[in-house]
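Fold this sequence, please.
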Amino acid sequence: MSGGAGSYAGSVPDAQELKARIEAAIPGARAEVEDTTGGGDHFRATVTADSFAGLSRIEQHRLVYDIFGDEIGGPIHALALKTVGTSGIPIP
């Protein structure tokens, strides 16, 4: 593991933990996270944050994925993201 923010050796996060970690890492963010299969490894998240302003969709998604580091593709097999500015309009 890289030792970064996403290094949670051996733990399998649930939707509530992913939500808490996103909201802790991105100031002012609100996250809705759903376990899409019930198996604890495929999730869908909608993240709303002012800090997405001025960022491309790729940069926004990278900001969220970086929270989990090597867990993506490991214990978190899939994380589908939708990022939204606080105006409620999805950011292109």
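Residues 1-8 have pLDDT under 50 and may be disordered. The chain is about 25% helix and 20% strand.
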